[in-house]
Amino acid sequence: MHTNKFFLYLAAAALVASGIAALSGHLPFVPPLAILFFIALAVAFQGYAVLKGFSYTMVILASFTAAVSYPQYFTKWGNFDLSTLITPSIQLIMFGMGTTMGIKDFVGVVKTPKGVFIGVVSHFMIMPLMGFTLANFSGFEPEIAAGIILIGCSPNGMASNVISYLAKANVALSITITAVSTMLAPFVTPILMKLLAGTFIEIDAWEMMWDIMKMVILPIAAGLLFNRLFHGKVTWLDRVMPYVSMFGIAFSIVVIAAAGRDNLFSIGPLLLMLVLIHNVTGYLLGYWSARLFRLSERDCRTVAIEVGMQNGGLASGIAKEMGKLATVGLAPAIFGPLMNVTGSILASWWHRKTPKD
């Protein structure tokens, strides 16, 4: 416990020091102090059961801060373009997802078909339409506006399962909705993008379908096969893969944030506000769409989280395959860290309110 308190004090000291540096005009000291603040919190949170689930959020924020502060280290290493690693990292994440999946993840479709149907349909209706509405009102250049629609058309974020657990929601339903929406993504996402984002930029639905198949279906299928053949035989993989997935998501966010840094600085505050509206509206409308169909409180929380949280990593991979990482990939790069923050806050609030049903 003493170690955790030390890192809490370190985080507080870093926060105060960064504030003093900013006010006194010593701006070069602010980014490293901010990064230290988030990392110290991430370590400190590990020692508290209630806060442990928020450690990854702090790591993401530290990574994002580093990327926009020192982009030269996250775009190229010599002549090697780091963005070329985004697609393989997404494939590795999806392989990891496949190794943890089995028939049990789809049994929920039979056990709670109503909840799964409402969760998946609400997700693929609310978020794309909200994204389209916000993109039209944004006034951004077409490619950046299309990125807002892209994050809306993406499947559920894998972080939603952790957030559902922290929020005392229905984790089994959360896992099933995530699995179903991810498997539907190669077919649903390109069609939605063609219909909605096609008014902003040229969308090749067939090419996008193949790109998502490569990033989602093939790696998950390989993961499922691996799980089938080696289940219980490679125990170290079960322990390692969650960390590999976390690294892959953080890596994608860092590279995109660094690549789109100039665009971020010019339109950052407005884009941040629109992404926040998109995310929070997803939680709100998701919750009330489930309430409308008389789902239990636990299931309503689950649907809210599943609707509001998107697979930013996959959206980033699609933007990379489109060759528009610094523009179309910008909204997904912001959405990822932001949804971890808002999801953590929502989970913390719900955690204190045990569902009566």
Task: Give a structural overview.
The longest helix has 32 residues, at 261-292. This protein starts with a helix and ends in a 6-residue tail after the last helix. Helices cover 78% and strands 1% of the residues. Helix 3 (55-69) packs antiparallel against helix 16 (330-351) and helix 7 (113-138) packs parallel to helix 10. The chain is built from 16 helices and two strands. It has helices at 2-23, 30-45, 55-69, 72-75, 86-99, 104-111, 113-138, 142-153, 159-166, 171-196, 205-230, 235-259, 261-292, 297-308, 312-321, 330-351; strands spanning 76-77, 80-81. Strands 1-2 form a two-stranded antiparallel sheet. Strand 1 (76-77) and strand 2 form a beta hairpin. It is globular, with a radius of gyration of 20 Å. It is mainly alpha-helical and 357 residues long.
As a whole number of angstroms, the C-alpha radius of gyration is 20 Å
Beta strand count: 2
| Spatial sequence of strands, sheet with the most strands | 1-2
Uncertain stretches: none
**Major sheet details:** 2 strands, antiparallel
Instruction: Give the termini distance in whole angstroms.
Output: 35 Å
Helicity range of the residues?
A: over 70%
Q: Mean of the pLDDT scores?
A: 84
Number of helices: 16
What portion of the residues fall into strands of 2 or more residues? under 5%
Shape call: globular
Order of helices and strands: HHHHEEHHHHHHHHHHHH
Question: Which structural class matches the secondary elements?
Answer: mainly alpha
